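Researcher: Next entry in the queue.
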Amino acid sequence: MSKTPALGTLRVSTGPSPIAHEHARLLRTALRRGELEPEIAPRTKLVGDFAPEAIAIARASWMLRMAHEHQSSAVFSRLLPQLIEAEVDLEWKTVALRMSMDELRHAALSGDVVRLLGAKPEVQTRLVTEPLPEHPDASPRERALRNVLFACCLSESLAAPLLSAERDLCGEPSISKVLQQLAADETLHARYGWSYLQHHWPLLSDEERERTNAYLPVALASIETRFVDALPDAPLPPPEQEAQLAALGVTMPARARALAREVLEHVIVIALQEAGLDAQRAWQRRGVSPETGSEGSEAS
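Model: Structure for this entry, 300 residues:
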């Protein structure tokens, strides 16, 4: 009988090891966008005046994001072996690893916000990561495309506008810089997926495209469950508290759910259809699983 994995302590701060300077150099030279330096200095203080209840909710939200971003790094690192098996060109592999590093950095940036909100950026959580779906009915190039489609065209294309909306409403300068970096990175991750789809979809055989279209209702149902239905249906807080939470980079679940559904149905599905997939039909049939269908894997 398998045992439930024990909780472990997730820490996102760098340690005193000799390799830490290579981590810092990588941030300076590879992962930053333009001149933006969103790391929050240790002595930075909040500019606004916030109720303790708002601080507590925001702290919990950013702690959850910290753990989620850290977990998401495994999705892109585990994509590399599938890209190798699919015989794709080198740039797709390199950028996939960059996206994995982005997610680790997002975890650290979220930890900076947790610290700014008065807590230590550590959390007890399950550290076991889920493997990417193998899609046994698919060829190597078809399998890689399915997982890129789910992780980037679906997951990251939903995450980017949600982060952009949070950035636009955020009133704290330091948190706003973090959200700006996260939104820019998730936009790159989404663009990777759409570029991959545009380049590799025409290379699939008719049989591979048919199987991928049969899988698409499963993928759409899964992403709808994870990004829309999974958001708690909690009542909106008083306007003053909602405004404070927005200033701290936190969106209420009801508003996030509405935006996610709008983007999924009226942006992503249409873009998939234009890319050549039978997405409109798949959206109508989402949740209807083919015999060999399987769900995708989550990223943010």
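Model: The radius of gyration is 20 Å.
Researcher: Noted, moving on.
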